């Protein structure tokens, strides 16, 4: 389940912003990425994950702070307050109300507000010094107690769209890397999409953790 939890952190900044004349700093890049997302409407992203525990694929649909995340064997709905996680292997649904801190490992777009808290930000060169197409933004935790100690975002310069995400959890030396394969914006999602539908899972056991 560790990969599944880390996956939730991935979905970062799906954007479309014009370039400015001056080179933006790390906070400016993330601020405009956050702004873009809030004005973008519904978004759908497909992704693949490379982790020490193995590789996996999935998709996420987002609307504001709501999301529907589908990975291999796990489906998670979040309506802005309540979260439902369905585990296919046990035909079980866990219901909870995650705190803002917990959303770092659940809600992809929690980073849109959390990057302003307890993280040191900087822009560094991409591995290929001649690469003039990508921003590499490094987020380093300022507290050892934070679960996610380092997050690296690769953002396309021309569009400010995310390309890749690398993250290292507290107590681990291995990075989990998320590759964005495709994304679509301007989707018209009904709020009901982000709420668990009991009728669609009639045999599922409901475990209320609230």
Which structural traits does this protein have?
210 residues, mainly beta, outer membrane lipoprotein receptor (LolB), chain A, globular, Outer membrane lipoprotein carrier protein LolA, OM_lipoprot_carrier_LolA-like, LolA/LolB/LppX, signal
- Give the SSE string: HHEEEEEEHEEEEEE
Query: Helix count, per DSSP?
Result: 3
By CATH, the topology is outer membrane lipoprotein receptor (LolB), chain A
CATH superfamily: Lipoprotein localisation LolA/LolB/LppX
Q: Which ranges are low-confidence, i.e. pLDDT below 50, for 5 or more consecutive residues?
A: 8-22
How many angstroms does the end-to-end distance come to? 20 Å
The secondary-structure class comes to mainly beta
Strand line-up in the sheet with most strands:
7-8-9-10-11-1-2-3-4-5-6-12
Please, how many domains?
Answer: 1
Portion of residues in helices? Answer: 10-25%
How many β-strands, per DSSP? Answer: 12
Strand proportion, as a percent range, falls in: 35-45%
Describe the fold and architecture.
By secondary structure, this protein is mostly beta strands. It has one domain: Lipoprotein localisation LolA/LolB/LppX (outer membrane lipoprotein receptor (LolB), chain A, Clam), CATH 2.50.20.10. It has 3 helices and 12 strands. It has a 12-stranded mixed beta sheet. A hairpin with a 2-residue loop joins strand 3 and strand 4. The radius of gyration is 17 Å and the shape is globular. The two termini are 20 Å apart. About 7% of the residues have low confidence. This is Outer membrane lipoprotein carrier protein LolA. InterPro entries: LolA/LolB/LppX (IPR029046), OM_lipoprot_carrier_LolA-like (IPR004564). Pfam families: LolA_2 (PF16584).
């Amino acid at each position: 389940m560790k990969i599944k939890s880390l996956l939730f952190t991935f979905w970062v900044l799906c954007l479309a912003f014009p370039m400015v004349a001056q080179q933006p700093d790390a906070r400016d890049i993330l601020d405009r990425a956050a702004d873009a997302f809030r004005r973008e409407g519904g978004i759908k992203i497909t992704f693949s994950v490379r982790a020490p525990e193995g590789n996996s694929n999935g998709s996420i649909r987002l609307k504001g702070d709501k999301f529907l995340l589908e990975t291999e064997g796990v489906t998670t709905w979040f309506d802005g307050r309540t979260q439902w996680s369905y585990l296919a292997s046990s035909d079980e649904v866990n219901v909870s109300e995650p705190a803002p801190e917990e959303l770092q490992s659940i809600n992809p777009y929690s980073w849109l507000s959390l990057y302003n808290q307890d993280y040191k930000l900087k822009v560094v060169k991409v591995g290929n010094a001649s690469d003039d197409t990508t921003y590499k933004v490094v987020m380093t935790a300022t507290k050892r107690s934070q679960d996610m100690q380092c997050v690296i975002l690769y953002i396309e310069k021309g569009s400010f769209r995310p390309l890749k995400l690398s993250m290292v959890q507290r107590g681990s030396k291995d990075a989990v890397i998320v590759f964005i394969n495709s994304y679509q914006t301007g989707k018209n999602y009904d709020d009901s999409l982000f709420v668990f539908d009991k009728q669609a899972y009639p045999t599922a056991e409901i475990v209320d953790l609230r």
